[in-house]
Specification:
The protein is an alpha/beta fold. It has 30 helices and 14 strands. The strands form two sheets. The chain has a seven-stranded parallel beta sheet. Helix 11 runs antiparallel to helix 13 and helix 25 packs antiparallel against helix 26. The longest helix is centred in the C-terminal third of the chain and has 36 residues. The site of iron/sulfur cluster has 12 residues, from helix 23 and helix 29.
Length: 871
Amino acid sequence: LFAKATAALDRLRALPGVRVEVRSPDPAAREVPAAADRLAFTQIARHLFGNPREVVPSPNAEGIEILAVTGQQGEVRALASRIKQLLLDGVSPEEIVVALRAPDDYADIVDEMFTAAGIPFSCDVAQPLTKWPPLKLLLGALQLEIEDWPFSRLMGLLDSNDFRPAWEEWANGQAVRDVADQLRHLGLDAGRDAILSHLARRAGGDAGETSAEGTRAAAALELRRSARSAVGLLERLSRTTAPLRRGADFKTWSEEILRLIGEFGLLPSADGTTGEPDSTAARELRIWEQFRETLMSVAFLAAGLEATPTKLEPREFLAELTDLLRTVTLPRDTQETGRVRILDSNHVRNLDVPYLFLAGLSESSFPTRSADDCIYGELDRRELNASGLTLGHRAGHLQGEMLLFYGVVTRARRQLVLSYPAVSGRGQPLSPSPYLTALRELFVPGALQVTRAERLDPVPELEGMLGLADLRIVATAEALERRPQLFAALAREPRGREAAQGILAAIDMGSARFQGRGFSPYEGVLQHPANLRELADRFSREYEFSATHLETYAQCPFRFWISRVLQVEPLEQPGVETDYRRRGIFLHQVLAQVHAELKSTLGTGSDSESLHADAALEIAACYQRLLKGILDRERPTSDLEEVLLGLEGRLLERWGTAYAAQWAKYQSELQTRLGMPLLPQKFEVPFGRPHPDAPPDDVVNACLVLGAGADETRVGGRIDRIDVAQVGDVTVFNIIDYKTGSKPRFVAGEVQFGRTLQLVLYALAVEKLGLIGPQAIPYQAGYWCIQESGFMAAAKAPDLAAGDLGPHPDWVNLTDALEEIVPRLAAGIRGGQFPVYNADDECTSQCAYKTVCRVNQIRPLEEKLDKSWQP
Ligand code: SF4
């Protein structure tokens, strides 16, 4: 045990001219523990780590307890509970010390648990300066410049609670939200120059937008306001951090970094510093002062050592600064009066402690593994030491650890509590330190009190409650066992009233959700009259639904509610990625122009086969020419975007060739069935109220109206293409909907549930609104899947060649179904029916709202509690 000290003594004795005198401390000068305790503590002091054959186990272990508890949280909770009891029994907090074997693992838990328990404490555990959030923010600003403003790092700085600049551009934080919105909107995920120039352009606005009217003008103005606010803040930030983008010597760097503390508003406010010297603000000031002194002393040293100061690039300075700050620890709590002290176990061995708690005595933490024993083996170390080197070796390390343990446990005077986590956070059993086992063997079996608290129940024991948080849990558990007295007491307590109300509301929700039949307000069925009034107003008879809106509602009413009614959108990380919408717009534009140009030539001639082959060639050539013209007008904003645009162009080129072949096949099939082609007659045909983005000269058609009276429902939309043929006196038409993604599913049976409406609704609109003239009959409606095999009809066509001049009976059934289902869907929306229900069991795999809908809790109750829904 004392090998290290003995070796040091031997070396001192061996030095020439040195006289060594060994003195023992005077036992009379020390506080004498109470008689009953002395025996147990004396046993430890005399025999711990001694020869087991010479140790006579003592029957008296009074004042010593071993605690084996589940997890570190449980361990600290058990300590807090015992300490609180001591304080309630009148023990002065200053007489209590908690020694932590692994301060890094325990300090935060102790802080949280002791604060919740209302135990006054001072934590004297050293933590590196790099762990302090305001300093992390400062280092983050340097990293931001080095990485050229990546979105996540930029928002990390601006969104930080510590970032409080006195800049008017910051606008009390509102500008930060504008920055986030604008960068997401522009898809800019990095690059200071690109970000600033794009925002500046947008803040300057576009004359066309400001001359628009109504909602479009208001949206344009808001966009410009937000862009101005965002660019104002970012330009100020950029000016402030400009010095961080160039190399400098250490002193200049340090001065710039210190300047940022004030610029970013990191110093505590003047109001906060007028209070106690121990206040948070005073401590923060001490930390900043320590930081300043550290930087300046290193700068002074560097200036003294170097004739010409070394220029450090930003990356080099950041590395040096981070290394430096890791070696400096945060100033400790100076105020210990009237507080329980939390100390690193290394700092306890010179104290006399009436009540000592030593925590974290697991097998792996006491003794610790020596960090430097991986390079040389034990034998090598001994040989190197014998040659005069002073390398540590395993035996020496273990001796040091034993001495530390001995030095700590012999400091207790009245009570010694030794604790360890008996079960890890993952539920694995953990063993205690072998030193603890050695200590137990000093006492006869059963003499030493060993308390095992290996419970996994999250509800604290009644007598182990630490504070209000525990009281809330225990009172609720008691009430659920039909013992409401504690809960009533909580509700009467002013600090507990709000919590009690919250718990009662949660119980209401749980009971409605997990015990009530059918869907409740907690599962999307709105009942509050004000909400219902708002819905009835917003989705009144004048409101125009789109096919997509109605389908979304029919597939998942709850999703419709969040996305369309509340307009909550998932936050996307900005970045350059495929813009599927824009890709679709390109394709629509090109195809519409191709058919407009070739209108007079396509569909004429007599030999159908050669006609289709020739037409395909013509279409392909025209498509490539027009596509090039459209792509040439694009202005990429970065090199990356230019490359992506090139790739996009190649894909669209391939699609042109594919489309031409698909056209030939489509017309060939029509020729076989109908004896004539159906030729594109109209593109992008709107019906209903014009879209805000529609060109001013756009055609205006009436909306489609389904249902009558209170159920009357209006539907608007835009049809990609209508192909037409004249069969005798009858006009027949095809509805075409372009698809550039994967092939959509059309199941005729789904129409009656509203989950597939678009094609049938569009066909009905053409018929009812006379969009291609009166008395037109739907021949086919389908998706044109560019990536697959072209046109795919969704329902059977009438056999016009056989003289069957009416629409196919299947179509009649489908359009009849629309008359039923569309008003029913609208009534559900107007009536606040948004239950969490989706017939697709896999819907969570790609839904952004899965974390808020709780469908996985509700689904298992579908049958038992009637939690299913049909529109
Ligand atoms: S996860 Fe399913 S049930 Fe939940 S909102 Fe999304 S689609 Fe609806």
